Amino acid sequence: MSEAVEPARREATVRVFRGEDRASGGFVDYTVPVDPGMVVLDVMFRVQQMRAPDLAVRWNCKAGKCGSCSAEVNGRPRLMCMTRLSSLPATEPITVAPMATFPLVRDLVTDVSFNYEKARTFPNVKLAPPGPDGKRRMYQEEVDRVQEFHKCIECFLCQNVCHVIRDHEENKAAYSGPRFFVKMAALEMHPLDTHSRVEMLRAKHGLGLCNITKCCTEVCPESIRITDNAIIPLKERVVSEYYDPLAWVKRRIFGEKEPAAPAER
Amino acid sequence: MSVQPRAEHDERTYDVIVIGGGGAGLRAAIEATSQGAKTAVVCKSLFGKAHTVMAEGGMAAALRNVWPEDGWDVHFRDTMRGGKLLGNWRMAQIHAQESPDRVLELEEWGAMFDRTPDGLILQRDFGGHRYARLAHVGDRTGLELIRTLQYRAIELGIDVLMECNIQRLLMDDGHVAGAFGYWRQTGRYILLRAKAIVLATGGAGRSWRVTTNSWESTGDGLRLALEAGAELMDIEFVQFHPTGMVWPLSVRGLLVTEGVRGDGGTLKNKDGERFMFRYIPEFFKAETADNAAEADRWYEDKKNNRRTPDLLPRDEVARAINSEVKAGRGTPHGGVWLDIASRRSADYIKRRLPSMYVQFKELADVDITKEAFEIGPTCHYFMGGIRVDADSTATTVRGLFAAGECAAGLHGANRLGGNSLSDLVVFGRRAGLHAAQFAAAQRAPGAVDPTELDAAVARMRAPLERQGGEDPYAIQSDLQDTMQDLVGLIRTQSELDEALVRIRSYRERLSRVSAPGAARYNPGWNLALDLESMLTVSEAVTRAASLRKESRGGHTRDDFPKADPEWAKVNVVVRRTDGELALQTEPLPQMPAELSEIVTGEGKATAAAAPHTT
Ligand SMILES: Cc1cc2nc3c(=O)[nH]c(=O)nc-3n(C[C@H](O)[C@H](O)[C@H](O)COP(=O)(O)OP(=O)(O)OC[C@H]3O[C@@H](n4cnc5c(N)ncnc54)[C@H](O)[C@@H]3O)c2cc1C
Ligand code: SF4
Ligand code: SF4
Ligand code: FES
Question: Best substitution site from A43, A44, A58, A69 to test ligand 4's pocket, by max atoms within 8 Å of Cβ?
């Protein structure tokens, strides 16, 4: 149990980014007492209570469910509330920095409005009418596939890590990023949806800019296989439907699913 | 107060503003917009992160996909009985009748619930519900609910003012005229003028030490309502969820969904005894299994067996766990065991309860498919809240509506699991509808008195300007200890008296609170302001708990251990007069005879009582 794997750490030193802009701000070390089982977010609370009451940290659920507490811990994009101290080396300070891809608000908090703007740029589901008995039927196998994408907690860690925008501010206008590829995959693979977003994915959302590095998949705290299950199937659709617009019509009429989906009803 | 130049602020005007971006607030905003009202949602955290996102087990609605025997009448009966007959009958009726449509509507907007083999929405068992009734998505139903409403709100182009904290409602001649607050990201003030306001601010469980609630649940809406002249009701009833994590300390209080028991998990004490069989109250004897064999058969065959006592309503289970621990039959860290590992396959557990599996594995190094784990009661839900009209959700203040956890009535003395998410969409929709109708009948938002704004700014700025005063974190921490120790699951007069004395001393400390730093994203300052709500609500809970001299549902008095028929006839109502809280009891609305029959009988409606059944 926890006592066994936990190194006997009584206190921890965290090296936290403080400041209102990246140029003038810098890292400050805080050493605070810690208890067994603690996560990085607990340490931030200790810092607030004991050293720096105005330390800006964004959080809500402290259970890995809301996606608010994203930061870069020892250089790795993570949820602070799901990062156990015992998983980090006890010998050196733990660095905690704000996500790099979004403008800084203060300390560990960034302005993630880029993502909320992108969320407004594609149509929601529009379901086919119910069956003759007035009911809508979907089967667990079809639903499973989409539910993987619905697990997304909008932590935006994948957006943060994707080099297309992390290293190229200029791409932001024309690129929606992995979170929204996941969202559009969910909509596209909804068994009863009637829209097509394929042309839009190519022209407006920059799907072609993604070169399948899989960095997004690696950081996703919900273990969504973003690249394999969302992006690659979408890319395939763009190829087949962009060059053969009838493919979409056919798929809708004949109800043919993605190759991976079980056809059994 | 020193004279200062009027503070700069942003200003926006709407027909309806909805304060709260959880399930209730989003559903209200969607409805108000659909009615043609220019609407905004305001929330303290980012869009889509409200407390609702954490809901796990499911939402209750008599869809009859799994049990055709179910119906609104049975759901109505379960809700009234679960609430120890103190709930508002009309709200319980509306809720039971409308929740199936609200669930189907979510599906229309993109929600994907787990399915029956026939392709319909699957329903799961939960405590106090006679039939498997909860539409769910594994153990992350709240995420599905909020995401669905979020993208529906986006589709309708609704304005969302996020990380914006409302600190005051503005009144014009007894009628709401707007709201005033600040943007957390910049510290700038904002004035929202509106013809109608919906409060959907959620619960107030943050004032307890061991809680499932996040920093947001400070009960702001309850304070705002009181200050505007509205009333609170049933505020003594706080639900302690029986199964929170207890170890390690850093996750103490974190919820373990009732779905674990709904899917076959069972409670055991340190001797391995399934102790719940010893705690079946008279009220539920007829419908509860009194032996393990019957309880286990019930999962598969509900017609011929009675339900397991592991799934008694939450108040009963929480008290039983408390008694076991007190009697020395608890686990090493002061809880009891919850065991699903020995009862269901690892595959089944991972499929049905994926986030529980991850939560324990990552945060406690426990594999719930292999071993039993420790759980104990945790502060979870406010049955009480703002008193509203059952049909329209209107408060007693003109233009002010309330829905969701911040409103009172539906759940009476104890809420059944799953009845909150359905509450949010049923009454959220009604709040949006009636607020939009109210707004349509007004020519323009009421006038705003600039001196009120000045007073609000002065109050909000004070902690930033004061130096070396009281520390907001210390006040919060002391308040949490007080509410946990003295106004917890089991209450007694001397402790309630002591709590009140302490709460008053915290209020005095709060008047000297200081928050170092600037206004830009400053959690210390934000907390200093939210403490006002926490103290107001804590005082209301403590005084109402002290007034109700009986035990019922979420309110247990050591010194009055029995339910008292006289107290079954009244609600405790809280108002604010001359800046002080005033409490009084008021008679419950009379339930029509045909509905009483449903509650006392088997739960089948007569034709006369069921005009809305389809
Ligand atoms: C862990 C957990 C699991 C649960 N599981 C279930 C379940 O399975 N089934 C079920 O039915 N119920 C469940 N519940 C209960 C249910 O989730 C809540 O009661 C419900 O989500 C409350 O929704 P709400 O819309 O009323 O408020 P919330 O979702 O709490 O939202 C409140 C909103 O108000 C905003 N707000 C508050 N104050 C202000 C202010 N001053 N200014 C601006 N905005 C403000 C907040 O920012 C937030 O957006 C669970 C609760 C928890 C904690
Ligand atoms: S796989 Fe594509 S979306 Fe993901 S990080 Fe790489 S480039 Fe970005
Ligand atoms: S896809 Fe994963 S990493 Fe990206 S926002 Fe969603 S949960 Fe976070
Ligand atoms: S605080 Fe919600 S994910 Fe970390």
Answer: A69
Residue A150: which of B108, B112, B185 has the nearest Cβ?
B112
Residues of chain A within CATH 1.10.1060.10 domain(s) are 113-254
| B451-562 and B9-54+142-239+380-448 share a CATH fold | no
Instruction: Give CATH for domain B451-562.
Output: 1.20.58.100
Does A261 score more than 50 pLDDT? no
Q: With an 8 Å Cβ cutoff, is A2 touching chain B?
A: yes
Provide, rounded to the nearest whole percent, the portion of chain B with pLDDT above 70.
97
Give the total residue count for chain B.
Answer: 614
Specify the pairing of strand B175-183 against strand B164-172: antiparallel
What are the residue boundaries of the structural domains of chain B, listed by start?
A: 9-54+142-239+380-448, 241-379, 451-562
Token digits for A121?
């740029």
Q: Which residue has the tokens 């305001």?
A: B42
- Asked if the model's pLDDT at residue B614 lies above 80, the reply is no
Closest partner residue to A140 (CB to CB) among B115, B522, B524 is B115
Q: What is the CATH number of domain A10-110?
A: 3.10.20.30
Q: Which of residues 132-161 of A touch B (CB under 8 A)?
A: 135-140, 143, 146-147, 150-154
CB distance B506 to B177 below 8 Å: no
pLDDT tens across B451-482, in order?
Answer: 999 999 999 999 999 999 999 999 999 999 99
Chain B CB contacts of A116 under 8 Å are: 47, 160, 162
With 0-12 CB in 10 A as exposed, 13-18 as middle and 19+ as buried, what is B7? Answer: middle
Quickly state the pLDDT bin for B397 (edges 50, 70, 90): very high
Q: Taking a C-beta distance cutoff of 8 angstroms, is the pair B329, B317 a contact?
A: no
CA of B238 to the centre of ligand 1 (A): 15
User: What topology does CATH give the domain A113-254?
Assistant: Fumarate Reductase Iron-sulfur Protein; Chain B, domain 2 (1.10.1060)
Instruction: Give the separation between CA B147 and CA B55, rounded to whole angstroms.
Output: 12
Asked whether residue B376 carries a pLDDT value surpassing 50, the answer given is yes
At B503-524, the pLDDT tens digits run 999 999 999 999 999 999 999 9
In this structure, the number of other CB atoms found within 10 A of the CB of residue B1 comes to 8
**Long-range contacts formed by B493-499: CB under 8 A, 24+ apart:** B493/B546, B493/B557, B493/B559, B496/B542, B496/B545, B496/B546, B497/B546, B499/B538, B499/B542
**For the residues B217-236, what does the mean pLDDT come to?**
98
List chain A residues with CB under 8 Å of B245: none
CATH class of B241-379: alpha beta
pLDDT band at A254 (very low <50, low <70, confident <90, very high): low
Residues B257, B262, B264, B268, CA torsion sign? positive
Side chain identity, residue B292? A
User: Which part of chain A is CATH 3.10.20.30?
Assistant: 10-110
C-alpha B479/C-alpha B602 separation (Å) is 44
Residue corresponding to tokens 């001797």: B271
What stretches of chain A show up as alpha helix (H) in DSSP? Answer: 2-5, 40-50, 113-118, 140-150, 157-161, 163-166, 178-188, 198-203, 215-219, 232-243, 246-254
The amino acid that residue B116 corresponds to is T
The model's pTM: 0.94
Is B508 within 8 Å of chain A by CB?
no
Yes or no, beta carbons of A61 and B53 under 8 Å apart = yes
Query: Which two structure tokens, joined as six digits, stand for B320?
Result: 């039983």
CA distance B266 to B246: 17
The CATH class of the B9-54+142-239+380-448 domain is alpha beta
If you take atom 6 of ligand 2, which residue's CA is the nearest one? A213
The minimal CB distance from B119 to the residues A112, A138, A150 is found for A138
